[in-house]
Amino acid sequence: MAVGPSTLAAVLHPVKGVRIGIASAGIKKPGRKDVVVFELAESATVAGVFTKNAFCAAPVTVAKQHLAKTSPRYLLINTGNANAGTGEIGMADANSCCVALAELTGFSAEQVLPFSTGVIGEKLPVEKIVAALPQALADFSEGNWEAAATGIMTTDTRPKATSRQIDWQGQSITITGISKGAGMIKPNMATMLGYVACDAQIDTSLLQEIVSEAAEASFNRITVDGDTSTNDACVLIASGTSGVIVTADSELRALLQAEINAVFLELAHAIVRDGEGATKFVAVKVAGANSVEEALKVAYTVAESPLVKTALFASDPNWGRILAAIGRAGVDQLNVDAIAVHLDDVLIAEKGGRAASYTEAAGAAVMKQEEITISINLNRGDVTETVWTTDFSYDYVKINAEYRS
Amino acid sequence: MAVGPSTLAAVLHPVKGVRIGIASAGIKKPGRKDVVVFELAESATVAGVFTKNAFCAAPVTVAKQHLAKTSPRYLLINTGNANAGTGEIGMADANSCCVALAELTGFSAEQVLPFSTGVIGEKLPVEKIVAALPQALADFSEGNWEAAATGIMTTDTRPKATSRQIDWQGQSITITGISKGAGMIKPNMATMLGYVACDAQIDTSLLQEIVSEAAEASFNRITVDGDTSTNDACVLIASGTSGVIVTADSELRALLQAEINAVFLELAHAIVRDGEGATKFVAVKVAGANSVEEALKVAYTVAESPLVKTALFASDPNWGRILAAIGRAGVDQLNVDAIAVHLDDVLIAEKGGRAASYTEAAGAAVMKQEEITISINLNRGDVTETVWTTDFSYDYVKINAEYRS
């Protein structure tokens, strides 16, 4: 179950300098492709954003340490096991995987960034992963983006990838990226896993600025169940192979940032559309707020309210639940009479109650759609923020009551 | 569906000076008893706590105004319609009901406190309620507590009431109370509706202290779905008919406070046990915190995590989800290696991962129970707080996708 047609881009342009190999380690199911290795050109720079969950997984800790010390040449990703909540053994296991890949490729273990996703709290099957590495290396190709998007899935029902090209003053930059995630989705720096590469040449500090800005406006604006993962990581690679140099404060940087923001937002939306049990794709837009914090507080309170989410599942324009959620969001001195709430273009509530012009038929017509925008105008400031979410269905309960081993 | 046997007390002692009448106004269903009127003796004092939801319902606003001005003689409660999100018309409707009851009884409208619970956003059927008032007045009796508990139910599957008596230096105080609520439960000052009466003589300011303390430790420590209602109200009555005078800073006050706290906690627990779709009654106890705020932040994050709640529904000791929720609770400088997590007496996690002594069999045995305590020791301070919650089941989705009209 997912909302709308697949958003997988028809063409995933290869990014020169980025080769990908996929292998089957049999972590959870025999034969399932569950290990993905990225190989980066020597000219590549890498930047990333990671979960702020205090119980961050071992590979997240290791990846951050390695990224701070070296220019990474490999990303090693497995699905089926998150290597989270695994204590010191988990740290040793993440390192062992890096060491094994380094030995096979002739680089240092610190030039490998490890990533894991899957069940929390079980020991990483290091031997299985290490045994699969030669198969992954033998598979290296610049054309493997879609296979990689499939290879990192957990409860996702479909792969998530997008791609675009920029032409600028006779030069060209290619951007391609993938993501995964369906549950435990309320990224706090990044999504479960996202990998985006471009072939421009960008120094690491600028690349970090670009990835932080793009993640803030995309992965940090989505929620499926309000649960921030222990393994969130999002990586942006600039392979440098196009010969196009991007510098800070340049016109090209602004253009590239806009395109990378768009890629990130597409990948973030793809995660929400594939949210566990999702039947609706819902934007919650809060305008007229005094601050970003205030707008997000209201937007997330509405987006995560179980009562609003079950009403969305039922296609019930139960605006009273939306008002109740706004009212408990903790906004100081909120003047409820000033607030207006729309479902798409239908004004449903104003002056503290149902709008005079509102009819159930008009509200019900919007709620029947698969894609809905709930617009809330607080009419007290000029800040607008939007978050994206899903409804709450029987299948969410089913998936999460049954998913583990 | 509700957890455990009914907790309705076998005997609900009448409170002298408090008479109750029940009537059928046919607000949602013909014949359903849906109007409850309390009549209080002239000697009675009344104090209350009310929702902090900014979209508080019209009757809450009116009740607070009346309580500030007079000594109330009547409480008028209806179920089936919350008179919330109804704007100025809702205020006028709440007042009209008070005026009608005042005319029938010869008191002023300000001596009536109105309360409503039920669907949000629909106009209160004032005429139906007013037409039912004579029937309620004719029904006045001190023995109607159980009928009142039934008369204020909405999606509740069973009435909630408790009663106890204190003997002190040859004198006796009776305390009896009722509550209702099953969904939209995360009280922020009080539950959906709670009414507790005793027959001691207590001045209003002391009574307000007593009700605030009791509500803080009971109704303000429960959550079913994290949604704070627009209509929360909890009222404590001291009818004064026993002749026992309670004064501030007295030994009797301490004794009475403890008993009233216990009554409130029983009523609050009864709401959680009857939480929408609930199959488990779960205490989340956080010890070793640096502050009450910190302890509650962790406790509520765990108690409201959809992933923890679906694991509880599945009886799955998925301690990884508990750790992930603790990790995203936003506690500064949390040392995850210091944290210990128990399910009842079973140590499941320590040092950032699964406890060495833990076995799935031991965890599964606890999770199969209907009543479970999740104990989290942060080991960084000496504050302990407990909140109570339920699991998240198919039936929660069903009830809230289907409930409205």
UniProtKB/TrEMBL annotation, chains A, B:
It is found in: Cytoplasm. The record marks A190, T191 as: Cleavage. The record marks T117, G118 as: Involved in the stabilization of negative charge on the oxyanion by the formation of the oxyanion hole. GO terms for biological process: L-arginine biosynthetic process; ornithine biosynthetic process. The active site is at T191. CDD domains: OAT. Its EC number is 2.3.1.35, 2.3.1.1. The keyword NADP does not apply. Keywords: Acyltransferase, Amino-acid biosynthesis, Arginine biosynthesis, Autocatalytic cleavage, Cytoplasm, Multifunctional enzyme, Transferase. Pathway: Amino-acid biosynthesis; L-arginine biosynthesis; L-ornithine and N-acetyl-L-glutamate from L-glutamate and N(2)-acetyl-L-ornithine (cyclic): step 1/1; Amino-acid biosynthesis; L-arginine biosynthesis; N(2)-acetyl-L-ornithine from L-glutamate: step 1/4. SUPFAM superfamilies: DmpA/ArgJ-like. It holds the Pfam family ArgJ. Catalyzes two activities which are involved in the cyclic version of arginine biosynthesis: the synthesis of N-acetylglutamate from glutamate and acetyl-CoA as the acetyl donor, and of ornithine by transacetylation between N(2)-acetylornithine and glutamate. NCBIfam families: ArgJ, PRK05388.1. This is Arginine biosynthesis bifunctional protein ArgJ. It comes from Spongiibacter pelagi. The gene is argJ.
